[in-house]
Amino acid sequence: MRTSHIALLIGVALVGSPAQADDLRGALTMAYNTNPTLQGARAQQRAVDEGVPIARSAALPSVSGTANHTEFLHSTGSSPLAPDRRLDLSLDAGMSLYAGGAIRNSVRAARTRVEAGQADLRGVESGVFTQAVAAYMDVILNEAVVGLNRSNVDRLKVNLQATRDRFEIGDLTRTDVAQSESRLALAEGQTRGAEANLISARERYIQVIGKAPEALEPPPPLPGMPTSVDAAVQVALDSNPDLIAARERSKAAGFDTSASGADRLPKISVFAGADRGDYLGSNKVPGQVQATTSSQVGIRATIPLFQGGLPAARRRQAQAREGATLEQEIGTEREVIAATRAAYASWQATTEIITSSQTAVDAALLSLEGVRAENTVGNRTILDILNAENELLNAQVQLVTAKRNAYVAGFSLLSAMGKAESRDLGLDGGAFYDPDTNYNRVRNAIWDWSSDPAPKAQSTRTVDTKAQDGSVTTK
Questions:
Q1: pTM attached to this predicted model
Q2: Is residue 72 part of a domain?
Q3: Which residues of the chain have a pLDDT value below 70?
Q4: 462 found inside a domain
């Protein structure tokens, strides 16, 4: 039920949408597939996966061969019957039977770090989605602000013309005209500033999403939000990827401490070898063989007696690092709790601001109508009208800003709770990236000559996108 509810978070119906319109689901899907930060984190996780076969290799047999060809060119006092050349071949194999627990604990630490890395990858994914939502909402916000400012400029132009007409007939003074001209100039400057902010928002959208925004659809409501701050914190403590990663790193550090103690314990290994020496027919001594072979097999035990305090120092070092990770885990837990509570408070506050801002807009509209009516009978001045129009603009900008802030704060809250990832959002666009797929592929790999294809960038470049402008299409 949780997945089906949260899937509605990004679901925007495409039926009836304008041609080439972008919706939030499409933007997040594109970021999921092409964002370089996320693609880089996936590649980094694949590198972490290799820690497991690297650690396991110490427990597996090792086989090596050696070949030497020697030509005897000159030796003072040597017999004329001495051989001229010799070929030596050797094959050696060995395997550890007991290493004091070092290998076993190293493998456990590597596996635990894979789990920590996968949690880190979830965190990067959630962070990219939060950036994408913010970029999407910033474009919508700044387009609305530009539209409001342009409408305000249009109103002020009409007001200025009306003021000039009334000045011509002696109904108003030159001061009234100057006030109207001043407000229009200020409004035109504010519009240029709003257009610059829109350009910046669109370029940020391209940076995060990978393409230019086109007729962005309004986002859907945020369902599945927590009913209380305590409920949000409890979910975050169970699901936040950063906290999960910190816990796994603490476990991995514990395995490192156990592995460090192996330096003081005996080690047992088995070995086998085969050798062949061949004079290649150059041995001239009658009755002497031209080639010899030998083979051996055995078991070796190594018992450390004194190492100058090295094992104890390594163990203390590992214990100190384990202690650091435990403190970092608590620090991350504090951060998660604080971030969740702050995001919840911000979401609640901005939601309430929407209501108050809507009230302010309604009141400002009514006030503007009243001031204009009173101006016609001489009870209000042109300055009163200009002030009322400015109050309306400010209220409208505050309203659209509050809507943007509430949506981003709500999504940030879901992110802090660990519920803003691809598995929660039900994105389209192909199969999800599963880090376990690569881990399962490589964890038991033992072939020395296996290799992956040469790496190629998976993210898309934006060098071919056009520079954005501050234009707004009226819907």
A1: 0.87
A2: no
A3: 1-21, 75-78, 223, 428-430, 474-475
A4: no
Residues in the chain: 475
Cα(first)–Cα(last) distance of the chain, in Å?
37
Domain containing residue 252: CATH number = 1.20.1600.10
**Edge-to-edge order in the sheet of strand 267-278:** 62-71, 85-98, 267-278, 291-302
Question: Is residue 48 a contact partner of residue 117, using CB atoms and an 8 Å limit?
Answer: yes
Rounding to the nearest 10 degrees, give the CA dihedral for residues 77, 79, 84, 86. Answer: -90
The pLDDT value given to residue 374:
87
CB of 38 within 8 A of CB of 32?
yes
Nearest alpha-carbon partner for 351 in 187, 215, 226:
226
Which pLDDT belongs to residue 6? 35
| pLDDT tens digits, 417-433 | 999 988 888 776 667 89
pLDDT at 75: 67
Reduced to 3 states (helix: H, G, I; strand: E, B; else coil), residue 71 is strand
Give the pLDDT score at 430.
67
Looking at residue 475, what is its pLDDT?
A: 54
What residues contact residue 156 under an 8 Å CB cut-off, 6+ apart? 180, 183, 184, 187, 386, 389
Tell me whether residue 70 is in a domain: no
Host domain of residue 171: 2-61+101-264+315-442
Give the span between the Cα atoms of 424 and 8, in whole angstroms: 10
pLDDT of residue 279: 86
- Token pair 């199969």 in the structure block, residue: 431
Report, in angstroms and rounded to the nearest whole number, the Rg of the chain calculated over CA atoms.
37
Residue 124 CA neighbour count, 13 Å, CB half: 19
**Is residue 146 domain-resident?**
yes
Please state, in angstroms and rounded to a whole number, the distance separating the CA atoms of residues 344 and 327.
Answer: 26
| Cβ neighbours of 68 (radius 10 Å) | 10
Domain count, the chain: 1
Beta carbons within 8 Å of 166's beta carbon, 6+ residues apart: 172, 176
